[in-house]
Amino acid sequence: MNRFVPLNDSRGSGGGENVPPIVVHVPHSAIKIPDEFARNFVWTPAERTSEILQMTDLYMEELVADEMPALIFPVSRLVCDVE
Q1: pTM of the complete model
Q2: Where are the domains of the chain?
Q3: C-alpha distances in angstroms, 53 versus 2, 5, 48, 49, 59?
Q4: CA nearest 67: which of 11, 17, 28, 5?
Q5: 82, 37 in Cβ contact below 8 A?
């Protein structure tokens, strides 16, 4: 099985050479903490918000959304750090 896919001419290669497919991994862009997990935090809501803003890669989804396939996680890394 070929692990590479031909790059089509519409993306600018012109030659059709084989290139590895790219999937962007965006593990830390979500700010959502589901209610069933939020009650387990000892921070005040303001402290939790501050921590989320410091630990989140904000706007990464928007940077890659239309450019290539992306694996984007729906909950904050404060709930589950997938790396």
Answers
A1: 0.64
A2: 22-83
A3: 42, 38, 9, 6, 11
A4: 11
A5: no
